[in-house]
Amino acid sequence: MSLTHLNARGEAHMVDVADKPESRREASASGRITMRPETLALLAEGGLPKGDVLATARIAAIQAAKRTHELIPLCHALALTKVAIDFTLDEANSCVEVTATCRLNGRTGVEMEALTAVSVACLTLYDMCKAVDKEMVIDAIRLEAKTGGKSGDYRRDEGVGGGIGVAAGVTVVTGTDGPIVTGQGHVGQVAVGSRCDIASPCIRVKCLAELRERLGVGEISVPLSDLTRHDVGGLKAALKALDPRFAGLDEGRVLCAVNQVMAGDRTPITDDDEVAFFPPVTGG
Amino acid sequence: MMNQPRRHDPIAHDAMSHDAMIRVQEAPFDAGAEQRALLAGRTDIGAVVCFTGLVRDFNESPEITALTLEHYPGMTESALADIVTEASGRWALDGVRVIHRIGRLAPGDPIVLVAVASAHRRAAFEACDFIMDYLKTRAPFWKKEHASQGDYWVSERHSDHEDANRWKG
């Protein structure tokens, strides 16, 4: 095995990828920032002086992924097609776990983008919380999985820590009872074991507002193969089979949006759709 | 888009061919500044209606100490844009601003702003009313009230749906 960023003379060079075939590339990375329990509680409640910490860190991570080539000398500039950042508040270990998934159809892998996104998310979390906690530690930044390309697929072997298993491949991390600020689900978040297998089709499900608190579930990924019918009704049935708490989807008026457009039980669902369930709206 | 005087044919107006701005933010807003920005450089506007919704200290319980607003980022903005587009199809509008706050708010805080400019008052009044009615029943925001007895999520109101239904048919 040789280092591809070194040429025959041992000098750094950028790999010429013009002749490599395009393929669908995806990589996910994770990391964590450990803080004092009081800091984590403040973060969950939106009580930190700089405002909505997770929303800011998410945007920072997405921006960082897009700018990886400006930071890491020999990285190519890539037109990413997807950057998804997930946060899991782990009260037991008093930390925030960050996961980033990047995807594109192209000639180079996207693991550096995923790792950069996680790093910058952690740094942003540090910056947003440092006024109240200077002893936070960022660690365990690592590649979880990558797919596509010549070097083949990779998946870290060890299990991903944290949480209580509710069904095969699904891990639930119970959050705090504090109020949510901007709805990107930091209470009762659900993360998937090693995330949904990124090589297989997956649906991202969100429960918002009162429904999230009633069910105790914020986000969950469901393999498309769990659905007997590829529509919202089929997804509800799969969720109920996965975890009895989802019986609550039938209690009271629960609305649904597929890819952020209002939907009904017969609305079709495909790979990588985002499906949100929520109570009737009460803004204004 | 902004600050360009543009005349509208009152019959064949295009949806969203005017200055439309939608913001979802934690920060407070200044209704006066927003209205001035909406009108800046324009002399063809004959009417502007500017509605500000405030956090009340009584609602489902008598002593509300705070309110937390959650939303569904992404869908919120597109839902508001759809509402403004629909209003623009119904009335000849010269400009619309919708600002909705999120996060924790205290009684008396401004929560929502809808400013509508038009050549004539009726269109401005009606479109503003319409946008608020649709916002309350279609935009994915949820209120949680914090009161001395505890926190609870606000229930939907039948009257809000009746208000929104006025614009049908």
Describe the structure.
- The complex is a heterodimer of chains A (284) and B (169).
- Chain A has helices at residues 37-45, 53-66, 68-71, 111-129, 209-215, 232-242; strands at residues 23-34, 82-90, 95-106, 137-147, 154-155, 164-167, 170-172, 190-192, 202-207, 219-223, 255-258, 261-263, 274-278.
- Chain A has 2 domains: 22-149, Alpha-Beta Plaits (2-Layer Sandwich), CATH 3.30.70; 162-284, Beta-grasp domain (Ubiquitin-like (UB roll)).
- In chain A, helix 2 (53-66) runs antiparallel to helix 4 (111-129).
- In chain A, strand 6 (164-167) and strand 7 form a beta hairpin.
- Chain A has 6 helices and 13 strands.
- Chain A has a 5-stranded antiparallel β-sheet with strand order 2-3-1-4-5, with helices on one face.
- Mean pLDDT of chain A is 81; it is low at 159-195.
- Chain A has 284 residues and is an alpha+beta fold.
- Chain A starts with 22 loop residues before the first strand and ends in a 6-residue tail after the last strand.
- Chain B has a single domain, classed as Aldehyde Oxidoreductase, domain 3 (Alpha-Beta Complex).
- In chain B, the strands form 2 sheets. A 4-stranded mixed β-sheet of chain B has the order 1-4-6-2, sandwiched between helices. A 4-stranded antiparallel β-sheet of chain B has the order 5-3-7-8, with no helix packed on it.
- Mean pLDDT of chain B is 89; it is low at 1-15.
- The longest helix of chain B is centred in the C-terminal third of the chain and has 18 residues, at 121-138.
- Chain B contains 4 helices and 8 strands; from the N terminus they run βαββαβββαββα.
- With 169 residues, chain B is of the alpha+beta class.
- Chain B has helices at residues 31-39, 75-90, 121-138, 158-165; strands at residues 19-25, 47-54, 64-71, 93-101, 103-105, 110-118, 141-147, 150-153.
- The interface between A and B is medium-sized, with 27 and 36 residues.
